Batch of 2 targets.
Target 1
Amino acid sequence: MEKPLTQHMRGDGAPLSLKEYERAGGYQALRKALKEMEPKAVTALVKESNLRGRGGAGFLTGMKWSFVPMNAPKPKYLICNADEMEPGTFKDRILLEQTPHQLIEGMILSAYAIQADQSYVFLRWAYKLAAKVITQAIEEAYAAGYLGKNILGSGFDLDMHLHTGVGRYMCGEETALLNSLEGKRATPRAKPPFPQISGLFGKPTIVNNVETLCCIPHIVNRGADWFKNLSPGADAGTKIYGVSGKVKKPGAWELPMTVTMRELIEDYGGGMQDGLKFRGALPGGASTDFLVEEHLDIRMDYTGVSAAGSRLGTGTMIILDDHTSVVGFVRNLEHFFAQESCGFCTPCREGLPWIEKVLRTIEIGEGKPEDIKTLEFHTKYLGPGNTFCALAPGAMEPLQSALKYFRKDFEELIRHKISA
Amino acid sequence: MATLYIDNKPYDPGTGKNLLEACLSLGLDVPYFCWHPSLGSVGACRQCAVKVYKDADDKKGRIIMSCMEPVTDNQRISINDVEAKEFREHVVEWLMTNHPHDCAVCDEGGSCHLQDMTVMTGHNYRHYTYKKRTYQNQYLGPFINHEMNRCIQCYRCVRFYKDYAGGKDLDAFASRNQVYFGRHEPGTLESEFSGNLAEVCPTGVFTDKTLKEHYTRKWDLTTAPSICQHCSLGCNTIAGERYGELRSITNRYHGKVNGYFLCDRGRFGYGFVNAEGRIRKPRVNEVETDKQQAIDAVRQAIVGQRVIGIGSPRASLQANFVLKALVGEDHFYHGVSDNTHNLGELVIKILKEGPVRTPSMKEVESADAVLVLGEDLTNTAPMLALSVRQSVRQQPLKHAAASNIAPWNDAAAREFIQEEKGPLYIATVHTTKLDDVATRTYRAAPDEIARLGFAVAHFINPAAPGVNNLSEAEVELAQHIAQKLLEAKQPVVISGTSCESEHIVRAAANVAWALHEKNKQTGIVLTLPESNSMGLALMGGHRLHSALDAILNQHADTVIIMENDLYRHGPASMVDEFLKTCRKVIVLDHTQTPTTDKARIVIPSGTFAESDGVLVNNEGRAQRFFQVYESTDVIQESWRWLLTIGAAIDHPRLTKWKNFEDITKALAQEEPLLKGVDHITPPASFRMAGGQRIPRESHRYSGRTSMNAAINVSEPKPPEDPDSSLSYTMEGYRGLAPSQMIPFFWSPGWNSIQSVNKYQDEVGHSLRDGDPGVRLLEPRGTKATYFIGIPEQFVPRKGHLMAVHLHHIYGSEELSAWSPAVATRIPQPYVLLNPVDAEERNLKADDTFNFDIEDQAYAMPVKISPDMPQGVAGLPYGLAGLPYVECPSWCILKTNMSWKKEVYTP
Amino acid sequence: MLTVEEKIEIDKAIHEVPVKKAACIEALKVVQQKRRWVSDESIKDIAAYMDMSPEELDSVATFYNLIFRRPVGRHIILICDSISCYVMGQEKLTDLITKQLGIRYGQTTLDGRYTFLPNPCLGTCDHAPALMIDNDLYRDVTAEQLEEILGKYA
Ligand SMILES: Cc1cc2nc3c(=O)[nH]c(=O)nc-3n(C[C@H](O)[C@H](O)[C@H](O)COP(=O)(O)O)c2cc1C
Ligand code: SF4
Ligand code: FES
């Protein structure tokens, strides 16, 4: 089983140094691309590889790049979204802390493809170690001539900067991220225009997730077919999956996209803790729909999870066990979303706190039958398109699916006026 | 022609709009909050949701925000779709979860967009049972009240204040459901346009604090269409009265002049109408009398006497015209300084005889390059500054459009544009508040500003005379400006009279004319000192100086001074002597001034609120204001007093005129430059369908039958209006009034000012039957005859400083200064010097500086600014207690001379 | 008044971006790092330095939860209150901290030693519950360890 993203990790959690990375074949892809490939060819290759964005939305990466106007004047920007703040998600952290040069190489290649001359890593504040590691790696890359002017004598220039945030989940939303990088409030921007046309400082910009970018060197090195074949199913490449919650061995693993939910929980996560039963899971972070027992054997790829009524999201699964209150679980999630709402659009700003209050009331045994209706109209009307960005629709996914699969839990608390 | 299907009916949506604008323009009701026709769309409130369908077969559709989607051909949408309606209802429900429901005590109640939208969406019952969020309010100064709990977070306030008007001290704070709009700390809002917050805010967060002092609901106001009295731009206003007191000024939309906004001087300057200094009774020899005695006194003072009349740039055409008729053409004088008189004539000559047209403010907004010569617009013509601020977005917006970003897509356009600005050049004596958007600025003495202008004209077109002895830097700047103006499609040159320099105005004309030869779309805007400066200048009449001569040389016995404080137009010593020498001084005015103090007979004129009249703005647009209410006492229009006097002396001409219309007709016939002013509004005999008048009161006027019940239950007969087809009651026509005479904006379901969209052709465009007013000045010339006579370089003189005026939005204008709210914002008199000049004279900031201009002594505290040109001293214009100075003029420096400041307070 | 040191660091950040204002968050971070929190005075000073109005800067400052606009203690305890940590017993830890230190979320101990704040997901969900004190991350935190951990911060 190939694990291109993680196979060279040292195992002690320390970062691969530039030397170590180069010894493992690092920066070969960059040399190859700069020497042999037109920027357009890189984009075409990535398109062909079928790589889908690992930041949650799963958009085809090569396609996204192809919307950047190639003849636009400089500056153009490439941004790595390392804001990882989706609850339950801890996959980018591993890549950031342990293989910084893999990310940097991926970023240089991506920047080359779209002919960006400026790049930023937007890192969340809490990742202190990653900040140190990335800072050092960027310095090393400059020193080695992988960054800066005339990279490896190719005539291609690229600068890279690290920006660490000051909180707020919204910063992970790609357009809010741009506002934040511009020193503004991290409220999202209207789309269209998409960042590819008018992004950072109004210039063409690509935002990609850490994991997405880390795939690029391997695709350039080994080709689109190799990448596709990593997972024999519908989706290409490997994915870093994670499991958290009350399993015996929570953790994260790079696996082909053919892995099933059951395998993840049982084979990798060690199964449920003793005495606890699996009730459900959010397959890809806080803003995905619950999957339940009947879905345990679905494939954890984009297609498989969608077919089951949820989203692969970030691929990091949170387990709900039978000793944890469903209402409390969902209330915790909605509290998070209500707190993290940027306050720009009405349904999200006013609706989420309302939901949180309703859930809290039910949780403490003071719920009323009509509370379910209140929750339901929110799940209906905080959907995609109704709110300004995807935060509120994401917030509705666990709620709507909880009402679908665990409605009884809500109703019992209300009927019997007990607390969770 | 594109077709838009709305609920399966085909419509022609026009071009370039978003769906919300299209629906509103078609007269359909779609609720909204954050969208504003001038501010564009940002998609925050989610109130304007509609369904859109892929094609005729798509029955499911999806919800979109109509403000965020461009209209496309054959698009199918539904406003009435059940889900869309339900969603819109929920949006109001969400907004209401935290809204205090304090309508009964809220100033916005009854004219509240949030109320209207709540009713429109059908949200009636509350389901939210939790605690509401509460905020602390801030003190925001004398104009605006703050009540944050009512906020629905539509972001309109900051978008107007910051993005549109360039204000710096209002913003959005915090996040999630705690977003707060206000200042960093309590304090007076600095923007000159803060009053618009009261109209832009869809609920009662920002409200008019001056209205609060004598609060009246919109439906309890008697209102009339009016014209702002506080600068030469002539913004359209709605003036509202109750119990004989003027209570508020709000915007009256005009598609070409002021659009949706007003400046704070215009909005809050009305207090002079109610001020204690109002003259309410006639006075003869300082004793109050009744009307008859006053008329008798006047008759005695003029029968058999040699009478001259002095008109006024702040009085209506009608008033000036009747005065002129009363005293005879040869004895009518313009009550402005000779310099101002000359400038007025020069402006008219340029606009009429030159080849270049003067654009409206709306057109200035869409100019793609602007040169300002000499004017600190924010302080002399504030709303024009707001237009210029929009103009710098024109070129960048075109670039955005090339990337498929529509101008109405406001946030997206701003993000694309970032700091890019179109060309704007400002040459003034000192800094201006528009400098932050200027491409380059130039600061110098007036003559130098004129020289720069002449040089620009020459570089544009060598046929215009060149300028000698320019420095290298000046040549570079002038060439750069010339270049950028030449590259523009619709360049505009702006200047005016506030520097009191004919050179500057001529230079501006040369630039415009030079450009015109290369680009027919060039415009020139020239601002004037007062609300009817243009009207007065268009009317025959002599220079003030010759009036003084007539009296001083004993060619006249009696002077009638109308609505004019001569101390604002001539040196105190001269006016003193004039008033002393004159045997009989009759003054008609509404407000006590140093001039009325010296009058033998004082006649109480109406202010604009108690009067009908026509003013001509700087664009040459003649516009009518209507009487808002009849004064309860003897106060009446100056022209009506003059007619009464005419009748008393059996004046052959005046006795022929009975009312406003008679005067206006005669005026239009006799004054060649004022032809057409009798067609501004329909005649007084005009009636709407069913023979109805247009009511000044909304039909919900709650208190008319009971408002005087404490005094008398029998309802008095309402006054008749002989001068217009407006009525003083709520009875009358209920539909839309003709655009020239809209007393208030109201439409079923639309109680707030946002109902204005029902009165427009298309949202944000002209009013339905055309924007009001008649433009009197269209250029006749085809070829430029360039001005020659370029001033010499400005060279500081030893022991002297060149005094120039600096204008203040609050204080420099006479009438608004009498309004209590505005009065609190007036600066203390000062003299502004360059640090080098100050140091040479051993002056530090706040030291008293003694100097002398034409024998008038001054002593004022010094302010120091490095942006002040060397050799020039800035004096605030027109502040109370500051004697008249004709500027620019040399002031001579004195030492240890003291001058006692006399602040005039009636 | 900004110190020379602060100005040097802010200048460095300004150098990294094409528009001066874009460095304003960095500027806030610099000042917070030196002074632990950003006072109204500091907002004015930084704003002036960045050619912004205090409003414009404070609008940004108050948006982000990790810019502290009120005084904080010497040490900041950020407990992850997101889902995985919740499942793994974070609420109990929170109660324990409140009991031990006598402060709830948003409060600072009277001796100014700790400020206690909730924080969304710390990105270490496989080692929940987690908390961060100053720059140190603690994972798989148990009730028993709490006292020892807190004790490290004087
Ligand atoms: C509220 C919200 C938060 C998000 N947070 C992140 C994040 O932390 N990291 C990330 O990579 N993408 C995040 N996304 C998704 C990004 O908007 C964007 O789709 C992604 O960075 C694109 O990268 P990709 O195409 O490589 O997946 C978030 C989206 C939303 C709506
Ligand atoms: S955001 Fe809102 S008003 Fe506001 S108009 Fe649009 S969506 Fe509509
Ligand atoms: S949920 Fe706490 S670290 Fe992820």
Target 2
Amino acid sequence: MNAGEFTKGIVRENPVFVLALGLCPALAVTNSVQNAAGMGLAASFVLLCSNLFISLIKGFIPSRIRIPCYIVVIASFVVLVELYLGAYQPALDKSLGLFVPLIVVNCVILGRAEAFASRKGIASSIWDALGMGLGFTLALVATAVVREVLGNGTLWNRAILSNMRPALIMILPPGALLSLGLLMAAFNWIRERGTS
Amino acid sequence: MNELINYALRLGLLCGLSGGLLSWVHFKTAPIQAAREAEERERAKQEVYPLPHGGRFEPGPLSDMECWSAFDEAEQLVGWVFEAQGNGYSSTLRIMVGMDRNGTLAGAKVLSQKETPGLGARIEEVASDWFTGRTLDALFLSHVGGNIDTITGATVTSEAALKAVRETGEKIMDSVKERMGS
């Protein structure tokens, strides 16, 4: 049962490609693989902590004020990440900049708190968070691979396409919409062929 | 009514816990971050104005901006390092510049910018070439009579960077001249 809670976030209910949640960071920080991986890990960490904590205190939170309570919990973990990056990961802090505080309103995290952690046990919530976090990170990295290779000619800051001029549009905002849209279509095409 | 108080207490308790935890972490990490930033700044200064061993930087001559006077090992004033700020196309450009006493630039490094990737962001690559060895009055783009080539597709960024360095540098030269004149 736990295996199912874990794997559903990767393909069947992938937060970005299938649920179409958390698209703001998926569009904004996927201009390099390093940024995408950093954002994916940061959001996964917050997701794991908030799922765990909310599942732990779900009896304490009255249902009518649950959303403010979730936001307080999520925001606390986000600020933790922000302080950690500021002190120990200056390069990532510089390039992710504004997008780290925005993890607070990442709908993947609030969505999992509302739809899953507030109803299920601690173990299931941890597996759910790990799977969803991994699915989110993989989706971001996949988009970033396409964008960084085509738009900058590099992969993880290493030059790989030296004999062609990179298509600048791919690392600019239109490239984010193009690559995310095409990847999403391809992902769902394959997924549906697999299930039918 | 009781229900409301109950809600307020629970939410308040949660916020209190969160605030306590975060202020503790902030208390622990703030000095680390400050030390790292100071070290980065020190390294940038040394990069744009390499001083021989025994040389040092001192704050000044202006107090309303980030600038330092550079002294060599014989305690002679050899030049200045300053931070020029200008409004680029989509962000504030912060450029650290080293300048000797004649107004010739010794080096430059972009500290931070968020210009368009691939266009204005290339200022990071060209800054050193643009500024090193040039005097303040030579900081003009080729289309207004200078001999610096604009970054293709980023005229606004190019102009902003040159203008910021030129004006900040002149401000320092003026203040120094004034002091010597008086």
